[in-house]
Amino acid sequence: MAVALKKVEGKKDFVTENWHQKAREIQKWGDVVQDLPHRLDAKVRADMCKKLNQLLADSIQLRDMYKKHHWQVAGPTFMQLHLLFDKHFEQQVEMVDTIAERIQLLGGVSIAMGGDVAEVTKIPAPPRGREEVPVQIARLLEAHKTIMQDCHDIAEAADEAGDDGTNDMVVSDILRGNELQSWFIGQHLVDMPLTYAE
């Protein structure tokens, strides 16, 4: 149903006047809000945000790899992996949101756009085309390994800086989830016969 916009005499057309607005950024990338009512000083928060943005970029890359592999998986384990990759994608969506919200809570700016993520992530991009299942799984396992190392490094730095919230988040919400996903997909690389016992 179309909505007609009524022009009021003497007033500017709201849509025409407000459609293409431009303004300065309200917070630059890398800056943290200085006067945030937080017990951690701005220097500590800025350092944590930088580390968390690396984790966020790597997590977004992994999240998107799960969706790519969900769409492109093939072979005798198609159904199991198709469903598993999508389940892991949804869990990564939640983890990505948790990391981004922690950055915002600390007064920082979360990385968000695909092009920016591609410039920052340490996880290599897969090719656009379809790959065999063992290669898909190997890529995912390497990505999980990178993220788990990110979590370890951030947890250690957060502990030293007294940032209990970041320490708890990366261990409880991100590290443990990635460990579990890594275990689930790693079991698909175990060499076991499907129809006979050795």
Automatic annotation (TrEMBL):
Domain Ferritin/DPS: 50-193
InterPro entries per UniProt: DPS_DNA-bd (IPR002177), DPS_DNA-bd_CS (IPR023188), Ferritin-like (IPR012347), Ferritin-like_SF (IPR009078), Ferritin_DPS_dom (IPR008331)
Top-level division of the source organism's lineage: Bacteria
Pfam families in the cross-refs: Ferritin
UniProt xrefs under PANTHER family: GENERAL STRESS PROTEIN 20U
Family listed: Belongs to the Dps family.
Protein name in UniProt: Dps family protein
